[in-house]
Design goal:
This protein has 106 residues and is mostly helical. 70% of the residues lie in helices and 0% in strands. It has one domain: Helix Hairpins, CATH 1.10.287. It is globular and about 40 Å long. The chain binds magnesium ion. One of its GO terms (molecular function) is hydrolase activity.
């Protein structure tokens, strides 16, 4: 399954009020990113070993991806283009030696 096929598949499980898609999906994305952090926190705290953490991270990263793909789809963004533009941006920063630091327009 490629990225565009995946994004189309997420439509089948997209259940939320259409009028609040932006709020719902951004909150969901942040929430799932928090779940990723929670797994890492438990690993650092030694509540779970690396194998267990990896297993959980695989699932949580999938959840992050679902919300990311739904946001792209709802906003009419081509997910393939989004990731390609991101790589171009980062490669330009590397060339300009501005990978470190902050701000979107480096
Ligand atoms: Mg989750």
């Amino acid at each position: 399954m490629n990225l565009n096929e995946y994004t189309l598949k997420t439509r089948e499980t997209a259940i939320y009020p259409p009028e609040t898609f932006l709020e719902y999906l951004t909150l969901g994305l942040a929430s799932e990113a928090g779940e990723v952090s929670g797994v890492v926190k438990k690993y650092i705290r030694k509540d779970q070993n690396l194998d267990v953490a990896k297993e959980k991270l695989e699932k949580e990263l999938g959840d992050v991806m679902w919300y990311w793909a739904r946001l792209c789809d709802e906003l009419g963004l081509d997910p393939q283009q989004v990731i390609e533009n991101n790589i171009k941006k980062l490669q330009a920063r590397k060339v300009n030696q501005t990978l470190q630091g902050d701000g979107d327009d480096r």
